[in-house]
Structure formats: structure tokens, C-alpha cells
Amino acid sequence: MPIDPDLAIGAELDEVPFAWTQSDVLLYHLALGAGGNPTDAKELRYTYERDLQVLPTFATVAVNLRTYEPPAVSFPGIEVDLAKVVHGTQAVTVHQPIPVEGKAVARTRIVDVLDKGKAAVIVKETTVHDSSDSPLWTERSSIFARGEGGFGGKRGESDKVELPDREPDVVIDTPTLPQQALLYRLCGDRNPLHADPEFARAAGFDVPILHGLCTYGVVAKAVTDALLDADTARVSSFSARFAGIVLPGETLRTRIWRDGTRLLVTTTAPDRDDAPVLSDAVLGTV
């Protein structure tokens, strides 16, 4: 079915009540690679319930933790084959520190549908409120649907982040695990692209690739640890564009520039000639 932007834009999806526990938070952090040094006090704040804190990027998995089927790209005016879809951008803004356990309601709407010619970009926004209707976080994401453009929609404007004309203030190398995609999929994203070699080849990849949102969380943690003393309460937001794939087991190289209360970030894969991974990334601080 061709995309119908008039039907899609502004469409509100069903409300989703959900809950999470300390164990869910611990699993998410472990799936990002937390606890590599299991006696380090800062790592234990991610992996041990005594002083547990929540990385704001947990917002990207909290709603779908109990999802056990591959996701479907099926919305009003939109039906897209999952094999054609890659994550485009992701942003999370937290309105207060995320509790280590709780209940909430997610409300999602289609914000925009852009026509990039050979592809369509579908932009969604989700707002999450706790049981007392207090706002917890706002999440905005876009997906890139290959072969679904050409429907006559608007192209959209560039949101490129300009980096300072100087060397980065900090450079961090972060290893990923060979089994990281298999761990991360337990947080609710069962897309076979990240586990099934045959599906990955059909989608145009030599091997299963790491979830973009896993990379997003790994980088957010690395920046928080390196520049914010591993204090997740100091993170107000994190946004990024997915510029390329990550193969499980690769090392990520993250370059960071201080810009007032913002940290400007790019991440590459040095094992593949510094191939871009995340671009236009900004971590907001408080």
C-alpha cells in the first residue's frame, strides 16, 4: 500500500499502559555493556540495585519490554515491509530522573512523513506520563523506509549540527560485545535483522548488525561516564542521527566537544576506516 501522508500525519496511536522493574533497568544496562569492571563503584550504579540509577536512554525500550514479536511498521496511512526499514534519528528528553521502577502511559502520534525521493521518513513522537499524570519523558524518532518515497510529500529541512572548528575535547574508545545484539534484543526489539543471518543477508547486510538504539545507549553511557562522572541525573536529553551500521564486537570511537550545557558528539567505527556511526548527536546536561 502506498504511503498516504494526509491520513498518516497527525494520526494518534492507541495509548499503551506499561510498567518496568529494577530487573528491567539492570538488564538494559547490562545489554549496553555496563559492568565490564564489576567492582567499579560507578559501574555498580548501573548494575546493582543498592544505588541503582537509570540512564535516560532506557526510555527507548521501556514501553516495549514485554514485546516478543518482531515489530510491524503498520500505522494509519502507512504499511511498510520491515526489511526495508532502518532507524533514522532518535531523541529523548527527560522531564525528571526516570524512576528505577514504575507504571506509566505512553501516547504516540505520527508527527510527519517526509518524501526523500527513493525513501520515506516517518517521524513519531511519544509522550510518557506516570500514574499521577506527571510527565516523565518525551521521545521522538524517525525511520527510513527504503523504496517508499516518491509519493509527492515534502522533503523536510536539514537539522545538521555544526561542530566547532577545533579538535575534540575528549575522545573515547568503547568496545562492543560479539553477542551484544543477542543481549539487547531481550529488551524488546526482536527484529530478526539483529539475530538471523539469513534475514540480514536478505536485507542487504553480510551479517546481523547491532541495533541502532543499542549503539545510541552505549554512546550515551560512555559520554555520561567520561564527562558527567557517571551521574545519569545530569543528562537532560540525547539526540542523534544514525549514520551507519555497527557490527557486534567492533570498537566505537566517540569524539566530544563541549558547547556550554551541551556536549556535541560524533561516533565512528575505527576498525572500518572510521566509518560514521552516529552524527549530529547532542547530549544536553543540567
Automatic annotation (TrEMBL):
Top-rank taxon, per record: Bacteria
CDD domains hit by this protein: HDE_HSD
Domain Peroxisomal multifunctional enzyme type 2-like N-terminal, chain residue ranges per copy: 18-147
Domain MaoC-like: 163-263
PANTHER family per the UniProt record, alphabetical: ENOYL-COA HYDRATASE CHSH3, PEROXISOMAL MULTIFUNCTIONAL ENZYME TYPE 2-RELATED
Family of the protein in this entry: Belongs to the enoyl-CoA hydratase/isomerase family.
Protein name in UniProt: 3-alpha,7-alpha, 12-alpha-trihydroxy-5-beta-cholest-24-enoyl-CoA hydratase
Gene source species: Amycolatopsis acididurans
Biological classification of the source: Bacteria, Bacillati, Actinomycetota, Actinomycetes, Pseudonocardiales
